[in-house]
Amino acid sequence: MDKLIRSLHHVTATVNDAQQDFDFYTKVLGLRLVKKTVNFDNHNVYHFYYGNEAGVPGTLMTTFPYKGWGVPVGSHGAGQIRVTAFSIPEDSLAFWERRLRERGVAVREAPPRFGEQAIAITDPSGLVLELVAGPNDARPPWVSDEVDARHAIRGLHSVAMPIRDPRGTLQLLTEVLGFEVVNEGAGRTRLAVGGDFPGHVMDVLPAAETPAGVNGLGTVHHVAMAVNDGDEQLRMRAELLRLGLRVTEVLDRQYFRSIYFREPGGVLFEIATVPPGFTADETLPCLGQDLKLPPWEEPNRADIESKLPRLSE
Question: What would the mean pLDDT of 77-95 be, rounded to a whole number?
Answer without folding.
Answer: 97
